[in-house]
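Input/output pair, single chain:
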Amino acid sequence: MAKTKEMTVVRGLDLARYMGRWYEIASFPTFFQPKDGRNTRATYNLNDDGTVHVLNETWSGGKRDYIEGTAYKADPNNDEAKFKVKFYLPPFLPIIPVVGNYWVLYLDEDYQYALIGEPTRKSLWILCRQTQMDDEIYNQLLERAKEEGYDVSKLRQTPQDDPPPESDAASTDNKGVWWFKSLLGK
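Output:
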């Protein structure tokens, strides 16, 4: 059996520049995201202690679902962009910490688009600062993902509205409801 090569990870990430909103252009479907999710995005804010506040949002059935967590360097003494992200489940009654890997596999020099993965190659995200991405850039990221050992046929493009919906519509919020629905197979 051929040994899978070690993934290339960005080094020297400027965390302050990485902060802000990123739109999900494509991802591997996961059990905890709604099948009809759209306008999926992540917003990162640097905390005073050097960790990152993570807000993941998606819209399903016209309602905003979201979950919040914390990201931190997997090894603070290493300059690789390998992070751990911790969420508490269920989101509406946070009790159980769930930690996942978040590895920045590629990032353009202007911090406008990124390829995110993790060591098992079961999760992959293509992120962009804009709601749409140029096809040429998208295809370059697909090639890079293939080089890192990902089966890009599993990628699902995420529908994004332009302009994107606002986040502050409290009457349509469902904190972590998508997680609960995922347990029921919806």
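Confidence is low (pLDDT under 50) at residues 178-186. The beta strands are 20-27, 38-46, 52-60, 63-73, 82-89, 96-107, 113-117, 124-128, 156-157, 173-175.
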